[in-house]
Amino acid sequence: MPFKALQLHNSILKALAEKNYGSPTPIQEKAIPLVLSNKDVIATAETGTGKTAAFALPIIQKLISKQDAIKKGKQIRALIVSPTRELAGQIHDSFKTYSKYTNLRSTVVFGGTSIEPQIDMLKKGVDILVATPGRLLDLHKQDVINLDYIDVLVLDEADLMLDMGFIDDVKKIERLCPKSKQILLFSATMPFKVEQLASSILKFPIKVKVSSRTSVTKNIEQRLYFTPKPKKIELCLHLLRNSIKGNIIIFRRTKYGVDKLEKTLLRNNYRVDSIHGDKTQSARQTALNKLKSRDINVLIATDVAARGIDIEHLDAVINFDLPNVPETYVHRIGRTGRAGNTGIAYSFCSADEKPYVLGIQKLLHTTIPVDEDHPYPLDPKAKPEVHKKKGSKHRKGRKSEASKKKKKRWY
Asked: Which residues form the domain of 69?
């Protein structure tokens, strides 16, 4: 089915043709007609399936038909709430691309950066606003944002939003919008808490689901390496020298791990940068831009970035530390193999991470091929490391000499 069959406006079709987007993905094919017919929608689709366009295109279409009727200054008609700054920026870029040949104006607001330029942009008037929950509520409190004219509210990556503790903010934002609005809820997974949220705020929603196995892992070759934890850095360097080429993202579980690996790769003369939660928004954006412009070819990240990175032609993903949540693995490897391209996902597994592999394989309904052709194999008999806490040097129930001296006598 070509995009023309969805009866989209010529200005949208022109922008899509420029990006060489010929036909919609399954999630777009299912969701776009529902959004255009004003239905509330719950869509379950992994990242990398084209779900941003699944709500962006019909929203632009609806606003094009309405904008001539509005004689007053621009009011915010569509609000997209996103959990992370990277995701919000990515969604805004998509809206700018698809609305290029229309008169619609969009902007993005998020924390971690100066609020003044965002206020200036909002005062000029926008049709479409992409926002993270905290900054959106801050600006509403300052009377900079008026949500009285919202026609469509989109909650993107709802599962991540709730995992990050935004449920109360999301409910408050929903209450600030008109009751007559259309709500679109997009989520990579549909845990019980997301279903609860959906049932409390959506009106007779239609559910749309795209299988993660066919959509995400189809174009991605997966390889699993069993290796001792202390040998992971050597294995990483070995693969970077001999096997892995092009643009790469390496995922680590902690900020400390990201910084440590970055220093090692810099010492080995790799062009590398990193992003994690402690970095400022401008530093995170600069690192992403450097990867996109190929000033660097290795980006090390924590999972804060797993869903917010959309880079064309990312050649490989390395799971330096395996995630303990199987869905996170899918989000990570979904950074590569996007938009019809192919990619490779390399995963390092130490003895204590073996249960995580079982969970991932259960979710994917497949066995990840093991690559044993490397110099740092894990002993099959190796047991997980056990970190014992050092106890007190005093026997239980015994007081230290210092506390005895401090004790006040009653006599």
From this structure: 3-211
Residue 373 lies in a domain: no
Q: Tokens at residue 366, please?
A: 């497949």
Whether the per-residue pLDDT at 138 is higher than 70: the answer is: yes
pLDDT digits (tens, 9 = 90+) for 55-88: 999 999 999 877 654 545 688 999 999 988 888 9
CA 95 – CA 83 distance, rounded (Å): 17
Token pair 């899918």: residue: 330
Q: Which amino acid is at 48?
A: G
Are 180 and 269 contained in the same domain?
A: no
| Concatenated DSSP letters of 96-131 | HHHTTTSS--EEEE-SSS-SHHHHHHHHH--SEEEE
* Token representation of residue 53: 């366009």
> Can you tell me the distance from the alpha carbon of 150 to that of 170, in angstroms, rounded to the nearest whole number?
15
CATH of residue 289's domain is 3.40.50.300
Which residues does residue 182 pair with via DSSP β-bridges, in sequence order? 152
Sequence-distant (≥ 6) Cβ neighbours of residue 330 within 8 angstroms: 46, 188, 212, 216, 217, 363, 364
pTM to 2 decimal places: 0.68
Query: Across-strand partners of 299?
Result: 249, 273
